TrEMBL record:
It comes from candidate division MSBL1 archaeon SCGC-AAA259I14. It comes from the Archaea. This is Uncharacterized protein.
Length: 211
């Protein structure tokens, strides 16, 4: 379903008991944990229609970017890492124009699978002994994984809730490892700079031995 490397994941674990020139800022800048609380609350109210994008640092920057998009709004974050379960980050909430997006993704979200569904997934995984060569096996394995993901995405995302029955599994995703924007306006570039500057200040102030 996607990599488990976002601040969304660590937060869930802790809590599971106009024109085309710019995105208009609709909320103040917040640290990543505060912004994820806002996302969590909004997602619980309406878990459909979300997409999640993780982008590498732009050429003029050293921080990763995350876009969590829902309708005409998005949470935009600057993160020091996408590999840490507790990244240092800052972000804001913005209003967007839909035609700025490169493409639509299958709905991002939380999906639970019953024991019967899990057993069916496992049953369809190919076995090495059934293939004469490694290349044929890995080709079949990749095809099986793709079909499994497609089948999983047929389910609608639901609210985050604990696993209750033995044998149940849950997945969070899908993610896209690119930028959702077809173009970046001058105001968006300035917002990136402002957030990066603020994130540098936070790191220097609160994590003096970081670098």
């Amino acid at each position: 379903m996607g990599p488990s490397i976002s601040p969304v994941i660590s937060f869930i674990k802790e809590n599971n008991h106009q024109n085309h020139e710019s995105w208009r800022i609709s909320m103040e800048k917040k640290k990543v944990d505060e912004l994820m609380k806002d996302f969590y609350q909004e997602y619980q109210e309406d878990p459909s229609g979300w997409s999640f994008w993780m982008s590498p640092p732009p050429e003029s920057d050293k921080f990763y970017e995350a876009y969590i998009i829902h309708g005409d709004e998005a949470f935009f974050l600057k993160l020091d890492s996408i590999f840490s379960p507790n990244p240092v980050g800052i972000g804001t909430k913005l209003e967007i124009e839909r035609d700025q997006l490169v493409k639509d993704l299958p709905d991002f979200g939380y999906r639970k699978f019953s024991r019967k569904e899990v057993e069916k997934f496992l049953k369809n995984i190919p076995k090495p002994e059934d293939y004469k060569s490694k290349s044929k096996f890995f080709q079949a394995l990749k095809s099986s994984q793709n079909k499994m993901i497609e089948k999983a995405l047929d389910k609608n995302p639901t609210r985050f809730e604990p696993i209750e029955e033995p044998g149940e599994l849950a997945a969070i995703g899908p993610y896209s490892s690119e930028s959702p924007l077809d173009y970046v306006s001058e105001k968006q570039k300035q917002l990136r700079k402002d957030l990066s500057k603020k994130l540098n200040e936070i790191i220097n102030r609160e994590y003096p031995g970081y670098y």
